[in-house]
Amino acid sequence: MNVNRTAVVTDSGNGLGRTFANILLKNNYDVILAATQNSYNTLSVDTDDLHQYKLVNTDFTSDESVAQLKATISNTFGHLDMLINNAEIANGFGQKIEQLNIEDVKAVYEMNVFAVIRVIKTLKPLLEQSKAPRIINVTSAMGDLTKMADDSFCYSNYCMTAYASSKAALNMYTHLQCKEFSPSKISVKSFDPIALKNCTHNSVEICNDVMDKFIGLIKYDSLVD
To answer: How far apart are CA 130 and CA 1, in angstroms?
Structure first.
């Protein structure tokens, strides 16, 4: 049954955007997959049988480009039920302070933190037109201070300074948005798609347990009709 739920997924090439989009399609969402240039080029030739989403080329570091994305959503659907902030940059594996390039660190923060703020700020009016709007910010356990302080945690010795600290900043931002939006109908959640047992460098595989958790966040009976 098509209940006309609408969703936007952001993507910058980690492979998860298409996965999330296809899960949403299977669960009766109409989906816009907003992708950065390189990801857009890859997804444009995607032969996946479930390639039924609307693909939009978006620069999440640009106010103008995100405003164009808003216009596309408004013209296509008129409102937005689900926003999944998945676009990210992960670089600098093994880099310690002497090896860090400040411009690279800025680029990571621009995508992993500032772009999320920009997208939420811009699309909030469309979310407010939904009966049960929801925001999911895709994070990483590498941004969890408690886990990273545990020597037994598989990522605890990874020196991805920019990425890990940007995800920690995103986690705090998500927490603050939960508090800010709590009086409203907008729900904000954090979601880590990489299960601990699947922790390998650059892994983007989603196991069944994690997929079930994601479906639990988006399924219709968890939303107000």
So the answer is: 19
Ordered structural domains, the chain, with CATH: 5-222 (3.40.50.720)
Residue-wise pLDDT tens digits, 169-212: 999 999 999 999 999 999 999 998 875 554 444 445 566 567 78
Sheet bearing 54-57, strands edge to edge:
54-57, 29-35, 5-11, 82-85, 134-138, 187-191
* Helix/strand number for the chain, H first, E second: 8, 6
Which pTM does this prediction carry? 0.89
Q: Is the CB of residue 170 less than 8 Å from the CB of residue 143? A: yes
Q: Give the pLDDT confidence of 88-136 residue by residue, as tens digits.
A: 998 776 677 888 888 999 999 999 999 999 999 999 999 999 999 999 9
Q: Of all helices (H) and strands (E), which one includes residue 159? A: none
Q: Which amino acid is residue 23, in one-letter code?
A: I
